[in-house]
Amino acid sequence: MRMTSPPAILETARRVLRLEGQAVTAMAEHLPGDFAPAVGAILGVKGRVILSGIGKSGLIARKISATFASTGTPSAFVHAAEASHGDLGMIMPEDLAILISNSGETAELRDIVAHVARFAIPMIAISRNPDSTLMRAADMRLLLPDAPEACAIGMAPTTSTTLTLALGDALAIAVMDQRGFLPEHFRDVHPGGRLGAQLSTVAQLMHGADRLPLVPPECPMGEAIVVMSRKGFGIVGVVADGHLAGVISDGDLRRNLSGLLERTAGDVATTSPRTIGAGMLAAEAMAMMSAHRITALFVLDKASHPVGLLHIHDCLRAGLA
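Predicted structure:
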C-alpha cells in the first residue's frame, strides 16, 4: 500500500484534532446538568470510586480511575467482564460506581448495574445516549455531546473517547480542588521517577545534624580546614551560641590564602550566608545553588540553628538535573 502525500497526511491530523477540540470546547460550554451533584457525591464517598467499562471505554475508565487515585480520591478499576466472574466482590456498599458506555447498552455492564442497585451503591453513568438502559438506571447522568467521531467512516471511537477522558479529568480535578489537595499530598502518591524527585523536600535529601561540618568562631583555620576535609562537603559552618554565624567555602579559602593559617574561622567566614529551610522543595534549593554558583547550603530551623546540609550532588543523585 502506497502512502499518500505528506500534505494529505497532515491535513487528516489537523481535521481530527479540530473535530475533537471543538467537541471538548462545546462540552465545556454545556456541562452535563448532573456534573456538580456528581462531584458532591464523590466527595461524600466513604469507600472508593469504582470505574468500569468495556473495550475503549474500559481503557478510558482505567485512566480516569488512576487520575482519581493520584489526586487524593481512592479509586479502582473493575473489568466489566471479570465482574461477572467474582470481581463484583470488589464493589462494596460504601463505594460509588462510575460506569462508562458510549451507547449505554453495553451488555457486560448489566451485572454491575444490578449489583449496585441491589446494594444501593450510588452510580454515575457516562454515555452519549440519554435514553439508554445505563442512563435510566443511573443516579447521576453525565451526558456526552452528540459529536461525530473523527474517523472517515464515523465509527472508530475517537471523539467519544476523547470527550469521556476529558470529562473524567474534569471530575477528578474538580474533586481535587474541593478537597484542597496540595503539592505535598501529590508528592505522597508520586514518590518515584522525575516527578517524585521534583516534589522532594530538602528534609528528604539533606544530611542530618550528625554529619554537619561545624566549628566555633575562635577555631584556628588549620583545624577548620581539617573539619571541612573530613566531612567532605567543601564547606564548614561557623556557629556562635548555637546559631549559624557564617560559612567558609572553598572559595573563601582561596580568597584568604595570605596568612590563612594565622587566622580564625570567624575572621574568614562569609557572614549572612544563603540558607534554606527543611520544608523547601529540593528543586528550589538546587535552583538557588545553580543561580549563585554554590555547591552546598546549610538547613536552618526557625531559630536559625543548623539542622542539616544539602549538597548539589544530593539533588543530582535524586534525579533533579
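Summary: The first strand starts at residue 49 and ends at 52.
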